[in-house]
């Protein structure tokens, strides 16, 4: 039975709507779709739960919007929250909220590249939940050895890490990281302020490690 004023798209089941919304790359478009009606709002929610990859690169996001989207992405494996030309305004408060999302323990890839508004406080809280992580990019942030110690404790499967221009990490943190993350294959130390003999010392611990300096 067709109701007066009902359109073809209004009769689509939520699962089919969700499959359409999964194709949306614009978070602005998703927000607009979400506001159309309750059915579309549910469709957007289901579409987020279907995603394995999510990146906020190129979008102006704040703590509230980023945390809300991630909280619905139950099956997420790869999460990117890099700095963008629109200045992604993510802080420790956002990372703390994201850390409670259901998907975090299943993440295999995480990028926080260039987020100057975050510190060890938010990174440590988030990293403590990412026990499946294999690839991590925290380049261009102000993290210290405190974050490296947390990574060493929580990420036994880590294979690659980018510490590009992390000028507050020291050799002590790196030795701990390489010593405990035994599956580590690659580490990017370009722009750090570690001693010139640090790469050699790391290779003593893990001779197969690829080090970019």
TrEMBL record:
InterPro entries linked to this entry: F-box-like_dom_sf, F-box_dom, FBXL15_LRR, Leu-rich_rpt_Cys-con_subtyp, LRR_dom_sf
Superkingdom of origin organism: Eukaryota
Ranges where the F-box/LRR-repeat protein 15-like leucin rich repeat domain occurs: 101-180
GO cellular component, one term: SCF ubiquitin ligase complex
GO aspect biological process, one term: SCF-dependent proteasomal ubiquitin-dependent protein catabolic process
Pfam assignment, any one: F-box-like
PANTHER family named in the record: PARTNER OF PAIRED, ISOFORM B, PARTNER OF PAIRED, ISOFORM B-RELATED
Protein name in UniProt: F-box domain-containing protein
Organism whose genome encodes this protein: Lupinus luteus (European yellow lupine)
Source organism phylogeny: Eukaryota, Viridiplantae, Streptophyta, Embryophyta, Tracheophyta
């Amino acid at each position: 039975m067709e109701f007066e004023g009902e359109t073809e798209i209004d009769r689509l089941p939520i699962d089919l709507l969700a499959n359409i919304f999964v194709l949306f790359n614009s978070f602005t478009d998703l927000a607009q779709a979400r506001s159309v009606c309750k059915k579309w709002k549910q469709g957007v929610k289901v579409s987020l739960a279907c995603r394995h990859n999510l990146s906020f690169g190129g979008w102006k996001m704040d703590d509230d919007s980023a945390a809300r989207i991630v909280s619905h992405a139950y099956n997420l494996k790869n999460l990117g929250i890099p700095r963008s030309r629109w200045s992604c305004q993510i802080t420790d408060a956002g990372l703390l909220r994201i850390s409670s999302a259901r998907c975090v323990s299943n993440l295999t890839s995480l990028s926080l590249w260039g987020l100057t508004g975050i510190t060890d406080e938010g990174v440590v809280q988030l990293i403590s939940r990412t026990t499946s992580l294999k690839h991590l990019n925290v380049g261009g942030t102000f993290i210290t050895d405190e974050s490296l110690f947390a990574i060493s404790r929580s990420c036994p499967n880590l294979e690659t890490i980018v510490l590009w221009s992390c000028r507050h990490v020291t050799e002590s943190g790196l030795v701990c990281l390489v010593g405990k993350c035994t599956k580590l294959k690659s580490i990017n130390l370009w722009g750090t302020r570690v001693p010139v003999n640090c790469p050699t010392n790391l290779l003593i611990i893990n001779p197969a490690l690829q080090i970019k300096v």
